[in-house]
Amino acid sequence: MVNLIPKRLIDEVLDIESGIPVRASTLLERNESDVWEVRLRLKKLEKEGKEWLVCAVCKVPVYVAGNTDRKTFYFKHRHERGECPIKTRGIYSQEQIDAIKYQGARESHAHVRLKELIRQSLVADSRFSDLKVEHIFHSLVETEQWRKPDVRATFNGQVIAFEIQLSTTYIDVIMERWNFYKRNGVLLVWIFGRFNPEYQRFTEKDVLYNNNRNLFVVNDETVKESIEDGCFIMEANYQVPQVAGNQIEVNWESRKVGMDDLHFDKLGNRVFHYDAEAAFAKTKAELQRPEQIGTATDGLADLRADFEEFWISESILDNEDWHSLYKSYWGRFRAAGLVVDDYYGERLPNGLLNAIYSLKHGKIIGFGFNLHVEVVHQVFERYRGYLRQYWWLAKAYQRVEWINSEDASGKLAKKIERAKAAMINNHSDYAYNGRFDQLLIFLFPPLLHHMRGKPLPSS
Fold first, then answer.
1. What is the pLDDT of residues 290-349, one digit of tens each?
2. 231/318 same-domain check
3. Does 244 reside within a domain?
4. What is the 3 state secondary structure string of the chain?
5. Are residues 253 and 310 in the same domain?
């Protein structure tokens, strides 16, 4: 009998000190001793009248509860007030819940401190005027629309909103604010408290690629320089392209910059130091020159075969060694220009790779199922954004008839029809995910011949 893990109501908590949201699974799906360390620390802080982890939505402190027999753990509110949105499903939309979480992150100690650092830096620069902290800005073009930027100031007649970003999610909130400020002629600058190019969070990437590959940091060091120089100083982090053989390597550079070192792109509502888009376009053009075209792809067939053998083999490697080897393969994919993120960024779901290799080899790989149709059900439930690529490959590897023959109940056929209808109606749950198309085409070449169609291929 399968032990079902109950769905956690509190799927995300907020570290009240750092302002960084943490997935419940990150803290609770670990060794029992690690979970108990979290549980005991929370209890100790409760006795001391202190807080550490709170519900990311309602900000009530949480504690660890669970069922030790089934080894399942979850967070519960320390005090049940009854009004938390996660306990009243349907009253709030996901967009509203994300906005509530985002607002909660703004109340963390780290957020409040960084806001003060920005204020001190701007006060030091006499070119800024009308400085306001947590002050409502009413829309100039839409009635009853307003936002409350962390810090707002005017520089040479241009209103600039400085928004702090310490959380790891809420891309919809980020884009909504960017659009609001753009409509109102306000330049938006996202400020981070720290940045490490070796470990980039999704939110940092969301801001990075929306801001010409530039990120800005304000910290104690930049504040000191701002006060000493009488000029608002930030740390600019940006990507610089470099030709390496027949590939483009992405390098990170960082420097302290003042307002005179920045470009103000009012049309795109961006503020950046280094024009990465122009640099990457120039570098790509260089690669097209005849003398640059070589045999960089000669070894890619071997890479494809080596990775496939690694993935489908019954590995005797322990978990750490397996991930180390996978990381090296991912680095080679990135060097070949097949993926953008490093190993610690977004990767292809392991289950999706298992499902596609199962198609190719005609046997179940990486799943404990007896029938292949069970694998297909997993794809339809968990990887809907990749359904088109998956079903094209099912046809390419001539597995559709085999799959249909196992669908004795007809449940899969009904799912396929529902998926087709949803795609025709552009339902967001079935939105096409082409983020890894280059890698999928490389690993599974038949996919290249089927990338023209948008609807789910007919069976």
1. 444 333 444 577 788 888 888 887 655 566 677 778 888 888 888 777 877 766 677 888
2. no
3. yes
4. CCCCCCCCCCCEEEECCCCCEEEHHHHHCCCHHHHHHHHHHHHHHHHCCCCCEEECCCCCEEEEEEECCCCEEEEEECCCCCCCHHHCECCECHHHHHHHHHHHHCCCHHHHHHHHHHHHHHHCCCCEEEEEECCCEECCCCCCCEECCCEEEEECCEEEEEEECCCCCCHHHHHHHHHHHHHCCCEEEEEECCCCCCCCCHHHHHHHHHCCCEEEECCHHHHHHHHHHCCCCEEEEEEEEEEECCEEEEEEEEEEECHHHCEEECCCCEEECCCHHHHHHHHHHHHCCHHHCCCCCCCHHHHHHHHHHHHHCCCCCCHHHHHHHHHHHHHHHHHCCCCCCCCCCCCCCHHHHHHHHHHHHCCCCCCCCCCHHHHHHHHHHHCHHHHHHHHHHHHHCCCHHHHHHHCCCCHHHHHHHHHHHHHHCCCHHHCCCCCCHHHHHHHCHHHHHHCCCCCCCCC
5. no
Q: Which of 83, 101, 119 is the last residue of a domain?
A: 101
Residues 370, 436 share a domain: yes
281 and 145 in a single domain? The answer is yes
The parent domain of residue 220 ranges over 106-287
Last residue of a domain, one of 68, 101, 134: 101
Residue 48 lies in a domain: yes
What does pTM read for this prediction? 0.49
Q: Check residue 456 and give its pLDDT.
A: 43
Q: Do residues 52 and 166 share a domain?
A: no
Residue 50 pLDDT grade (very low, low, confident, very high; cuts 50, 70, 90): confident
**Same-domain status, 164 and 283:** yes
* Mean pLDDT, rounded, for 67-71: 64
Is residue 3 included in any domain, yes or no?
no
Residues 159 and 244 in one domain: yes
Domains identified in the chain, total number: 3
Q: What is the pLDDT of residues 340-389, one digit of tens each?
A: 776 667 788 888 999 999 999 999 988 888 888 999 998 988 888 899 89
Residue 294 placed within a domain = no
Specify whether 148 is located in the same domain as 45: no
pLDDT tens for 400-454 read: 888 989 888 989 999 888 888 888 888 888 888 888 888 888 899 888 776 644 3
